[in-house]
Amino acid sequence: MKNLKRNIAIVCGGDSSEHDVSLRSAQGLYSFFDKERYNVYLVDVKGMDWHVNLHDGTTAPIDRNDFSFQENGKLVMFDYAYITIHGTPGENGIMQGYFELIHLPYSTSGVLVEAMTFDKFVLNNYLRGFGISVAESLLIRKGYEELVSDDEIEEKIGMPCFVKPAADGSSFGVSKVKNKDQLAPAIRKAMMESDDVMVESFLEGTEITVGCYKTKEKSVIFPITEVVTKNEFFDYDAKYNGQVEEITPARIPEETAERARKLTSYIYDILHCNGIIRIDYIISKDQKISMLEINTTPGMTATSFIPQQVRAAGLDIKDVLTDIVENQFV
Q1: What is the DSSP letter of 227?
Q2: Which of 40, 141, 253, 315 is the most buried (most CB within 10 A)?
């Protein structure tokens, strides 16, 4: 009897400012997946509108009771969900909780890890307890702004500093602040994206990013990418509008590269991650490696970091995705 193909949902969209970025990642993933092995569908989630894009160009609503849909009068059930929503609800544990409830395997880490990695302030303070170097930071909550004064920020964090949403991605709402007068407008801007705002010390050095995934059989650390931008920082335009130079492998000493690889593997294990993650770091002049953030649903367009690193490693991304899916069924 012929083996049946698994039905794969590439879950994209979401409710954050990154909705359209997610759709681009979904198209990338769709092009990468092995169609000989899997039936692949795009599922667009936005608010209460969940629908699957059918291969004839039409759409069908998703039944949220079991994440199924009807195609040509037949019920289609998914075997696996590959989540590529950047931001809520796919990167903060909400979608993962839903898939746990209906017992559908998915591509990312679990509920707690997703919630924690989405909140940069919580993550930094958690990992600091494991000896990971991170920037100094303060948290400002909406409605409680007066609890942290501009003078306190300048004294504890220093200038320049970054003001960013504590729970968001893609550099929306992020400002580099060079003096106290710029703090209030920067905090207001960040609060348009998140109720919690993190003020973080500026770390000077070389920015790198390292991709990683593990299965029951293997641990794969991709070649390291160096991120160079003439912008004030690696902002949205640098990420998505080409205002950046991405150099793989990074121009760093091999000893430093090896420490970055080991650190990435260590953090993956601390958090019990699943699927592909990407960790951003700053390397100071004395070669100290400090973690900036962890991306558990990294961009997957053809020009995104992970596909670049996969190519640099001499791997086929089709095989990488198959590894990740099949690891759930071993």
Answers
A1: E
A2: 40
Distance between CA atoms of 306 and 202, rounded to whole angstroms?
Answer: 26
Report yes or no: 196 and 142 within 8 Å, Cβ to Cβ: yes
Task: Tell me whether strands 49-53 and 161-165 are parallel, antiparallel or unpaired.
Answer: unpaired
Identity at 47, one-letter amino acid code = G
Q: What is the pTM of this model?
A: 0.91
Low-confidence ranges of the chain (pLDDT < 50): 1, 238
What pLDDT does residue 168 have? 63
Tokens of residue 101, six digits: 């409830």
Cα dihedral angle (251, 253, 258, 263), rounded to 10 degrees?
A: -80
Q: Rounded to an integer, what distance in angstroms lies between the CA atom of residue 249 and that of residue 251?
A: 7
pLDDT tens readout for residues 272-314:
999 999 999 999 999 999 999 999 999 999 889 999 999 999 9
Cα–Cα distance for residue pair 63/67, rounded to 1 Å: 5
Nearest-angstrom CA–CA distance, 258 and 223: 10
- Cα separation, 47 vs 14, in Å, equals 7
